[in-house]
Amino acid sequence: MKKKLITASIVLSLSASMLAIPVFSATSSNPAASIEPAGTLPVNPFNEEKQNLPKSISSSDLAKMEALYNRSQKLQDEIYSSDIQYNDLLGKYKDIPSFQEVKKRLPGSLSHDELKKLEELYNQISKLRKEGKTSQTDPLWEQCYKILDPYASKEPAFGYGSKEPAPFQDYYGLREPAYTLPVNLFDEEKQLLPKSISSSDLAKMEALYNQARKLQDEIYKIDIQYSDLLGKYEDILSFQEEKKGFPSSLSKDELKKLEELYNQIAKLKKEGKTSQTDLLWEQYYKILNLDGAAFGS
Asked: Which residues are in coiled coils (predicted)?
């Protein structure tokens, strides 16, 4: 069953998780897929993005969507810049295990020279983190993993973890309907931070965190406008097609109500008001006994 009218949208989520030290552990079944160093957030040029959009979009609406899309990308770059600064500050205070602890989880078949090189790289990384330069450690991590990669296939049980998500990370995808993204207040966030952070660094981190939240709010408003424009041109199944996948236990009155709601939603989308369909979708899925997760499926 097609459970929703699909709306492509640009979504940015602000996460409270922190960038951690990459560790060598036996938890990853596919280490090669999880060790990429942090880098510039992926940015889709609109020229590429519009290849996936309906061809029926008018030139004026396409121009508006391009402006919104590019503005969103610019704001995401600003958030990423805040993320770099935030993690550079945080790295100064994160506990870093000694190399002697780390090497207990390394492959036993590593040569003496390889272990020596790994220790040298790891100590450089630790030093940079303590100096507030976590963002400069990526090339060093790449060298570490280059040494370790050949052993991943030889010793399947061996794996090594990746960096955790940064505190401000963007996600692109499909969703229906629009919803308010959950965001922790910094007062809650700082309960999870090392207690050793100095008051001056904590103040800087709070400013960066709040700046990212403000930028996120602006991106969310852009997302709403973008989705409203896009909804006007998306193909919408007729209710007769939609109901083919419905449970056979639905009563005549329930089917009638579903059709009424579905047609209201379709009408609003075609009028450029996708953002006003949330309550209708809630009623729709309540009848079908589907939870909110169905909106994004």
From this structure: 251-278
